[in-house]
Amino acid sequence: MHEWSEDAARDLMSLGGRLALLTRGEGSWVWDADENRYLDFLGGIAVNCLGHAHPVFVDAVSRQAATLSHVSNYFASPAQLEIAARLKRLAGTGEQGRVYLANSGAEANETAIKLSRLHGARFAETEGRARTAILVVEGAFHGRTMGTLSLTPKAAYRDPFQPALPDVITVERSIEGLESAFSSHAVAAMIVEPIQGEAGVVELPAGFLARARELTTEHDALLILDEVQTGSGRTGEWFAFQREGVTPDAVTVAKSIGAGFPLGALITFGAASDLFYPGTHNSTFGGNPLASAVANAVLGHIESENLLANVTARGAQLREAVLSLPLVGGTSGAGLLIGIRLTQPVAAAVRAAAHERGLIVNAPTDDVIRIAPAYTIGDDEIDEFVTRFGAALTAVAQNLPDIKEPK
Fold first, then answer.
1. Measuring CA to CA, which residue among 327, 326, 393, 337 is closest to residue 370?
2. How far is Cα 106 from Cα 283, in angstroms, rounded to an integer?
C-alpha cells in the first residue's frame, strides 16, 4: 500500500476507495503522484467542462480572489448579479425568472423540494390540506442529502437512512406510468432528470417530458427538471429541456457551471418565481463573488468560443467511433454525456482495465460505461480515447470464454 493510501484510510471518512493520488492536470490530462498520466474522460463526473487548469478558469479564480471572495448573503456583488442575469438569458426565463445560487447540485435540489412545498401549501384552503406529493422517476438520482436522497429510489443509497421524506412517489419510466400517477395522487411537483446519468445515462421515452409538462399544467403541479448533470451545455444545448421543446417551472444546475468550482443554482420560470419570500431560504456561501465570477467566466467562454457546437460534433464522433469496438452494444445520452452499453455485465472490469491503460471513465451500472469529457476535446483526445478504451475492452473480452468473436 502506498503511503497516501494509508493516510487516506486513516484520516478520511470510509466512503469508498480512491483510485489514485492525482496531483496536477492540464487540459484533458491528469497526473498522479508517481507521474503516471491519465486521459480524463470522466471530468470529475461531468464537471470539468474546460478540462484542467484552463487559463480562463485560472484567471477568473485569481482575479476575483485578489478582489473580493466572500460577502455572505447580506450583500450582493457585481459577479452575482451578472451570473443571475446570464442564467436567466441562457435558460430563457424571460423577465419574470429568478435565480437562487447554491453550493452544489444537491443543495439546488433541496431548494427545489422546498419550492414544491411552498407551491403545495397553496392548496391547503381549497383542498383541505397542503399538497406534499412529489413524483420522481424510477432510476432517478437527485443527491445524497436527506431530502434529495428521499427523491432517489435506489435502495442501496436510501435504505440505511430511512425514514425518508414522506409522500415521494416513484413512477415508471413510461408515459403510461406517468399518467397513472397523476390520476392517483394530488401532486405538488414532479422532479425529473431529462437524462438519468447515474442510472447509466438513460434517456426518457420519446414524448415523456412533453407529457409531463401537459399533466403538471393540467393538475396545477410544478415541473422541476434536475439538470445538475445535463445543464450548462453538456448535451450540446444550454439545457436538455431545450431539446424537448418544453418549458419547466424550475430547473436545477450545477457540475459544469463552474468547471470545477463548486456551484449550483435553482432557476425559476413564471409564477414559480414568486413562491419563495424572505425568511424561507438562504445560504451563507451560495452565490459568493468568487464562485459567481468563475461561473461567469466559464459560461462566457463556452459562448464566445461556440463550444456547444463542439460538444454536439464531438459527441457524435465518439458515438460512431466506439460502435466498432469489442463488447460495445450501443450508446445513449446526448452531446458529451455518453453511456456506452456493453454486451456483457463487465463494466467494472472495463473501467479497471481502462485505468490500467491511463484512461479515466466510470461504470454507473454493470453494463454501462459513462464518459463526460471536456467540451474542448478534439481529434487528438478522441483518437487517444479510442485507442486506450479499445485496448481495455479487448483485454476484458479475451478473458470472457463465452464471447466467441469480439468485434
1. 337
2. 13
Distances (CA, A) of 41 to 29, 156, 386: 9, 26, 11
Torsion (CA) 213, 204, 332, 309 in degrees, nearest 10: 0
Distance between CA atoms of 147 and 189, rounded to whole angstroms?
A: 14
pLDDT of the residue at 405: 46
Residue 2 confidence (pLDDT): 61
Phi-psi map region of 245: left, alpha, beta (phi>0 left; psi -120 to 50 alpha): left
Tell me how many degrees the CA angle 29-290-192 measures, rounded to the nearest 5: 70
* Amino acid identity, position 44: G
Amino acid in position 195: I
3-state secondary structure of 198: coil
Name the residue among 145, 134, 114, 90 with its Cα closest to residue 223: 134
Closest CA to 104 of 375, 291, 248: 291
Dist. CA 319–CA 330, nearest whole Å: 8
Beta strands in 35-171 (DSSP E): 37-40, 98-102, 133-137, 168-171
- 3-state SS class at 364: strand
**Set of cell numbers at residue 353:** 482495465
Bridge partners, residue 369, by sequence: 340
Segments of the chain with pLDDT less than 70: 1-2, 402-407
Tens digit of pLDDT for each residue in 197-255? 999 999 999 999 999 999 999 999 999 999 999 999 999 999 999 999 999 999 999 99
Cα separation, 382 vs 385, whole angstroms: 5
| pLDDT number for residue 406 | 45
Residues 6+ apart with CB under 8 A from 135: 169, 170, 171, 178, 181, 182, 185, 187, 189, 190, 191, 192, 221
Residues designated as active site:
141, 226, 255
